[in-house]
Design brief:
Largest sheet: 5 strands, mixed
Structural class: alpha+beta
Distance between the termini: 119 Å
Shape: flat
Helix content: 25-40%
Radius of gyration: 45 Å
Number of strands: 24
Oligomer: single chain
Number of helices: 9
């Protein structure tokens, strides 16, 4: 269009251009908002992919534990693809930040209208200059194609892995589901992919484009991870070893009882059970759905053995093979044992734990009773009891039931041993002046006693003897010093002697206090 020479016509044309530009700006504002909405939506989709891919990798690692030697390479490949994906997404984030930086950075998050958006979101020169003129777009194109090939190479390396269905056909199907790539549409324009994709595109429009590349990468990662998860045990049936399995209701029985066991083969395909035969000690058993039942009624005791032979057609080789293994079980007679969990003594005043075990007798059939020593038995769980006693002498526990001949177990009943009196951590002898005055009174210690019990000091006589002075005494009830005893203790100085006479204590189960000795301290 030629430029008009008439001033009036020139002014009209300029006004028309300004109006057109203003209309374009209004439309552009709505489109710009749409770009950011699309970018936000794709970002949410990417987060879902991240969570799903993390779960898929965890599932693969858990499933691969059944055969780490065979499926460990699947886990290694999955982690490699995840690392390729992570590196690609970091690269794309870097390109995005480069564009934002060149266009003026971001609006602050506190901005009520443009919070977090690029300041140059309408800028077309930045995208054209960096991605087209400076060939950054060509680099992005190459990065996409190279990354796609890295993912394919990682999975192709697993082709023919034993125990999986990874072959040319499944890999071809997988390749179709890998969305990361370059569209061929740009070739119709006669321009380069970078020019076709980024030329004169505002910064805002590039945001969802780059976010889509990341979405394609995460989608491709998900396709690979799901493909690998499905490879664990994916073959219809390919094994080269069969292990006979005997599942017995009980591996220890009582003489005269029947021994019952289910015998099968360690395989998961129904094709294994075709033409299968199972023999025990040479005798053929009836097989139903791959399971044969074997029973015996031994008369003697001790370890009993039997041999299992399984013959079947290997669905992989088509050959009939026989696999053998020996099994054993133990035959015993009914017996019972009762033991005090602490020692062969019951103590008055404390809970005495007791265990009752009877071989060959169900715990529901056992009957436990007790007598003597004021004993009382209380069940605390299967085979576990607490016994409390109140009188010195002997207690008897009787166990019967379940075909067991009544059996008696005798236990001595004693008082709790005498505690040892202590002042702080000392049982007597020399003590520094400051340490002696710092104590609050006497305590009674049960040394070497395994039960949870505590004895209390009932009282004692405190005698204070200073050099060249008459003895002064104080009758002290309880373990802590009374006022008079405390005053005597405060007078302590080097060379003084203190006697703790007639020390009395009372332990759990005692009807009255007991004398537990005397202590002497010399102040230094």
């Amino acid at each position: 269009m030629s430029i008009p020479k008439e001033p009036r016509q020139l002014m009209i044309n300029i006004m028309y251009l300004v109006l057109t530009a203003m209309l374009a700006l209004n439309v552009s504002a709505e489109i710009i908002n749409a770009f950011f909405m699309i970018d936000k939506g794709i970002a949410g989709s990417n987060k879902i992919f991240d969570d799903s891919n993390t779960f898929a990798l965890t599932s693969l690692e858990r499933n691969a534990e059944q055969d780490r030697a065979r499926y460990g390479k699947l886990v290694e490949t999955a982690k490699k693809v995840r690392e390729i994906s992570r590196e690609f997404n970091t690269y794309i984030d870097g390109i995005r930040e480069e564009l934002v930086g060149a266009s003026g950075g971001y609006y602050p998050e506190t901005d009520p209208k443009y919070a977090g958006k690029p300041k140059g979101y309408k800028n077309k020169d930045v995208t054209t200059n960096i991605l087209v003129n400076k060939n950054k777009g060509d680099e992005v194109e190459k990065k996409i194609l190279d990354t796609r090939q890295q993912v394919l190479d990682a999975v192709n390396a697993l082709k023919g892995l034993p125990g999986t269905a990874i072959n040319d056909q499944t890999l071809a199907d997988l390749e179709k589901s890998i969305t990361l790539g370059i569209s061929e549409d740009y070739k119709k324009s006669g321009k380069s992919w970078a020019y076709f994709t980024f030329n004169q595109m505002p910064v805002a429009s590039v945001f969802p484009i780059f976010r889509k590349f990341q979405n394609d990468m995460k989608s491709s990662e998900a396709a690979v991870l799901n493909y690998l998860v499905n490879q664990v045990g994916a073959t219809s049936f390919k094994v080269d070893n069969f292990i006979p399995i005997s599942s017995a209701a009980k591996s220890y029985i009582i003489a005269g009882d029947e021994y019952t066991s289910e015998i099968t083969v360690g395989a998961s395909s129904s094709s294994v059970y075709e033409n299968m035969s199972i023999r025990v000690n040479g005798s053929t058993l009836k097989v139903e759905n791959g399971v044969a039942k074997y029973s015996a009624r031994p008369s003697g005791t001790g370890v009993q053995k039997y041999k299992v032979d399984i013959s079947l057609t290997n669905p992989t080789t088509g050959e009939t093979e026989t696999y053998s293994k020996d099994f054993e079980y133990e035959v015993g007679r009914r017996s019972v044992t009762v033991s005090a969990d602490k020692m062969n003594v019951f103590y008055i005043g404390v809970d005495n734990p007791v265990s009752v075990a009877a071989a060959g007798v169900s715990s529901n059939e056992l009957k436990v009773s007790a007598s003597g020593g004021g004993i009382n038995m209380k069940s605390t769980g299967t085979g576990k009891y607490v016994a409390t006693v109140s009188e010195p002498g002997e207690s008897r526990i009787t166990v019967s039931g379940g075909g067991l001949t009544p059996t008696n177990f005798n236990f001595r009943v004693k008082r709790i041993p005498d505690p040892t009196p202590q002042l702080g951590r000392s049982k007597g002898g020399e003590m520094a002046n400051g340490e002696f005055k710092a104590q609050d009174g006497l305590i009674a210690m049960l040394e070497g006693f395994d039960f949870d019990a505590r004895c209390d000091i009932q009282g004692y006589d405190l005698v204070y003897i200073a050099k060249r002075e008459d003895a002064v005494d104080s009758q002290n009830p309880g373990g802590r010093y009374n006022d008079k005893s405390r005053r005597l203790v405060e007078r302590a100085k080097p060379g003084d002697v203190y006697y703790f006479n007639n020390i009395r204590a009372r332990c759990p189960g005692d009807k009255a206090g007991r004398a537990i000795g005397t202590m002497v301290f010399r102040i230094k």
